[in-house]
């Protein structure tokens, strides 16, 4: 960035991008320096960031929801932004992401090599992984992409708990988790390039607050039924209705007719979980749904999903969810009460 010039933030988008992410980021970042004085003093200030919408080409298209997008430039004509933000680019969780955005991925490599800070929101981290920019690094993405990252990008340390992952910031890489994690990323970028005061004022204007609790309270267990291994698939079907039983892993091993070691190996290969972790996740998911909608006590809910030791239930719930059962209930019953 040359002296006196505005920091340039390029928002990389595609037809698979959510309008809320693209236009939310654009609106907030473009307003920095201008809207706060207007709202408090009645006189608009000067915008302090240059923000552009970039795509594979500059041809207009429609993104998710049939919303029009008019890129200001194609990637071939954007040479040296200070920051690139890869907006979310929806990819089905069981699809192969390989080669879907080859042109954009190659551009990301060049921009990073040229000194740009490269960021992503939600599924946009897939493009960073495709570019090799997440190899050996912690990274956040939407919680639904846990299995995809383990399957397709084993060199990435996928952080399901993280909403804004800054550990790779010294290498000029930042990843944000779920869709609304763009709030956290926007405030971070404003603070970094425009100063803390501008970040605070912008947050006040748009009523933006961070996700201090991370993604875990929102994450839901993804558990596709295994088709390739019929034995494991049958055990999955059985445990879905019988996760409350005592010694559930031993029961599944017995039903499978396999040795405990072979069963554990095949179960992890099929599901991505160790058997006991799979059962714990099933139990916690059921407990979460009960906490969201029912008035039963925490101890009663723990017992109903298979935990006789209430203190153990509270510990494992907080480890998996990031909140205590009581805090989780307060958070999500309040949301439900708006209906």
How would you characterize the overall build of this protein?
- Helices cover 45% and strands 11% of the residues.
- It has 14 helices and eleven strands.
- β6 (83-86), α3 (102-113) and β7 (117-121) form a beta-alpha-beta unit.
- α6 packs antiparallel against α7 (196-206) and α8 (230-242) packs antiparallel against α9.
- The mean pLDDT is 91.
Write a brief structural summary.
With 339 residues, the chain is of the alpha/beta class.
Question: What are the SSEs and their pairings?
Answer:
Blueprint (H helix, E strand, L loop, with lengths): L7 E5 L6 H13 L3 H7 L8 E6 L5 E3 L3 E3 L3 E2 L8 E4 L15 H12 L3 E5 L3 H6 L7 E2 L6 H7 L4 E2 L5 E2 L7 E4 L5 H13 L1 H11 L23 H13 L5 H9 L3 H12 L3 H19 L4 H7 L5 H12 L3 H12 L3
Parallel strand pairs: 1-2, 1-6, 2-5, 6-7, 7-11, 8-9
Antiparallel strand pairs: 3-4, 10-11
Could you estimate the helical fraction of the residues in percent? 40-55%
Please identify the structural class as seen in this structure.
alpha/beta
H/E element order: EHHEEEEEHEHEHEEEHHHHHHHHH
Query: What general outline do the C-alpha atoms trace?
Result: globular
List the defining traits of the structure above:
single chain, 339 residues, alpha/beta, seven-stranded mixed beta sheet, two-stranded antiparallel sheet, 14 helices, 11 strands, 11% strand
């Amino acid at each position: 960035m040359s002296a006196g010039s505005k920091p340039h933030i390029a928002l990389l988008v595609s037809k698979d991008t959510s309008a809320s992410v693209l236009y939310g980021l654009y609106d907030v970042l473009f307003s920095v320096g201008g809207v706060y004085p207007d709202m408090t003093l009645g006189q608009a200030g000067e915008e302090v960031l240059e923000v552009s919408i970039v795509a594979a080409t500059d041809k207009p298209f429609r993104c998710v929801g049939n919303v029009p997008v008019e890129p200001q430039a194609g990637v071939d004509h954007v040479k040296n932004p200070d920051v690139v933000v890869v907006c979310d680019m929806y990819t089905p969780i069981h699809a192969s992401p390989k080669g879907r955005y080859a042109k954009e991925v190659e551009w990301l490599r060049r921009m990073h090599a040229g000194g740009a800070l490269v960021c992503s929101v939600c599924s946009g981290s897939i493009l960073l992984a495709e570019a090799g920019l997440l190899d050996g690094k912690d990274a956040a993405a939407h919680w639904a992409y846990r299995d995809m990252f383990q399957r397709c990008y084993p060199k990435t340390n996928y952080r399901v708990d993280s909403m804004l992952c800054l550990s790779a910031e010294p290498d000029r890489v930042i990843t944000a988790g779920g869709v609304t994690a763009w709030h956290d990323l926007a405030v971070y970028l404003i603070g970094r390039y425009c100063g803390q005061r501008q970040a605070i004022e912008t947050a006040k204007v748009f009523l933006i607050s961070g996700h201090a609790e991370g993604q875990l309270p929102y994450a839901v267990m993804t558990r596709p039924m295994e088709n390739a291994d019929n034995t494991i698939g049958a055990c999955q079907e059985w445990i879905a209705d019988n996760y409350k039983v005592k010694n559930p892993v031993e029961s599944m091993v017995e039903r499978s007719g396999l040795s405990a070691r072979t069963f554990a190996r095949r179960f992890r290969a099929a599901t991505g979980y160790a058997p006991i972790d799979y059962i714990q996740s099933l139990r916690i998911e059921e407990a979460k749904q009960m906490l969201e909608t029912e008035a039963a006590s925490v101890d009663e809910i723990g017992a109903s999903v298979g935990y006789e030791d209430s203190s153990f239930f509270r510990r494992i719930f907080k480890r998996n969810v990031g909140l205590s059962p009581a805090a989780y209930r307060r958070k999500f019953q309040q949301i439900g009460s708006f209906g």
